[in-house]
Amino acid sequence: MKTKLLITTLALAASTSAFAQGFNTAQNASGFKGPTQTISTVQQVLSADVFNDDMPVTLTGNIKASLGGEMYLFTDATGEITVEIDHDKWLNQTATPETKVQLIGEIDKEKSGTKVDTKIDVDTLRVL
């Protein structure tokens, strides 16, 4: 009886391991690989349709001012926009209005009546 149990357990372990390996190939290990529609300028963000909430953005420019709390005024060659940078996203980096930065995040659009408030929720901040 113990031998049958041991053989069954070993067979199950071997088949489970082989089954799991089928899902751990490099081809299946991650999600979509290909072109994405990332917005890269403030002008594109501001002209994006209200339904493009949460669309990814990668902006390069300068943080011109602190607006209080975690809110900042960001500017690039095409315009300016409010960005929200959580304190933990700074990662001991320092920026001045003259420092070039790259912000990676998503559009955050909130509609209140006929007014649409657009800002960027920053996931990653890189001082360049």
Count all strands and give the number. Answer: 5
End-to-end Cα distance = 67 Å
Q: In the CATH classification, which architecture of the domain at 42-127 applies? A: Beta Barrel
Mean pLDDT over the full residue set: 83
Query: Can you say what the CATH homologous superfamily of the domain at 42-127 is?
Result: Bacterial OB-fold
Q: Nearest-angstrom radius of gyration?
A: 24 Å
Shape: globular
Number of helices, where a helix is a run of at least 4 consecutive DSSP H or I residues: 2
The order of strands across the largest sheet is 1-2-3-5-4
For this structure, what is the CATH class of the domain at 42-127?
Mainly Beta
> How does the helix and strand content classify structurally?
alpha+beta
Q: Which range best describes the helical content: under 10%, 10-25%, 25-40%, 40-55%, 55-70% or over 70%?
A: 10-25%
What ranges have pLDDT less than 50 throughout 5 or more consecutive residues? 15-25
Strand residue content: 35-45%
CATH topology of the domain at 42-127: OB fold (Dihydrolipoamide Acetyltransferase, E2P)
How would you spell out the order of helices and strands? Answer: HHEEEEE
Oligomer: single chain
Quick one: biggest sheet?
5 strands, mixed, barrel
InterPro entries: BOBF_sf, CarO-like
Pfam family, one: BOF
Signal peptide: 1-20
Keywords: Signal
Topology of helices and strands:
Layout: H1 2-21, H2 42-47, E1 56-68, E2 71-76, E3 79-85, E4 100-112, E5 115-127
Parallel strand pairs: 3-5
Antiparallel strand pairs: 1-2, 1-4, 2-3, 4-5
Structural summary, described in words:
With 128 residues, the chain is an alpha+beta fold. The chain has a domain at 42-127: OB fold (Dihydrolipoamide Acetyltransferase, E2P), CATH 2.40.50. The protein contains two helices and five strands; from the N terminus they run H-H-E-E-E-E-E. It has helices spanning 2-21, 42-47; strands spanning 56-68, 71-76, 79-85, 100-112, 115-127. It has a five-stranded mixed barrel with strand order 1-2-3-5-4. The longest helix has 20 residues, at 2-21. Residues 15-25 have low confidence and may be disordered. InterPro entries: BOBF_sf (IPR036700), CarO-like (IPR005220). Residues 1-20 form the signal peptide. Keywords: Signal.
